[in-house]
Specification:
By secondary structure, this protein is of the alpha+beta class. It folds into two domains: about 45 residues, no CATH class; about 60 residues. The chain is built from two helices and eight strands. A four-stranded antiparallel β-sheet has the order 1-4-5-8, with no helix packed on it. The protein has a two-stranded antiparallel ribbon with strand order 2-3. A two-stranded antiparallel ribbon has the order 6-7. A hairpin with a 5-residue loop joins β4 and β5.
Length: about 140
């Protein structure tokens, strides 16, 4: 019995074809014609789940921040400053704060806490004061 090269390759390829078809269907999820019952085309593996999660998280919309608070037109921002206070030998640091403009042109100033370079705390009561650029005290 002699075997030709052609029949050897035909039998070899048939022997390899069935396991290859099963591997393609099970591992990769490729449906192959004649493979019998159709398996789902998307089998999940730990790697594919991780890639799906990564893709989903990178495609998620960026959260937006709320709009910035707009200063009311009757408010004035007064930055940190140093003022001279009668009876205090050094200047007093006044922290930044908002002041509300009053109809008469003055400003309503909230209660403030000033600090001297020596560490002394000075309280300034809330009240109506001239505009910040026209007054000597906080």
């Amino acid at each position: 019995m002699t075997m030709s090269h052609t029949s050897f390759w035909v039998r070899s390829s048939r022997a390899l074809c069935a396991p290859l078809t099963v591997c393609l269907v099970l591992v990769v999820g490729i449906p192959v014609a004649g493979a019998g019952a159709q398996l789902p085309s998307t089998l999940t593996t730990p790697t594919s789940r991780a890639l799906n999660q990564l893709r989903d998280s990178s495609m998620r919309p960026i959260p937006t921040t709320p709009p910035a608070a707009i200063a009311r037109p009757d408010s004035t921002w007064v930055p940190d400053r140093f003022v001279t206070v009668p009876g205090i030998p050094s200047q007093v640091h006044i922290p930044a704060h908002w002041e509300q403009r009053l109809p008469d042109g003055d400003s309503f100033v909230p209660p403030l806490t000033g600090l001297t370079p020596e560490g002394r705390v000075i309280q300034f009561p809330a009240g109506s004061y001239p505009p910040v650029d026209h007054r000597l005290q906080p």
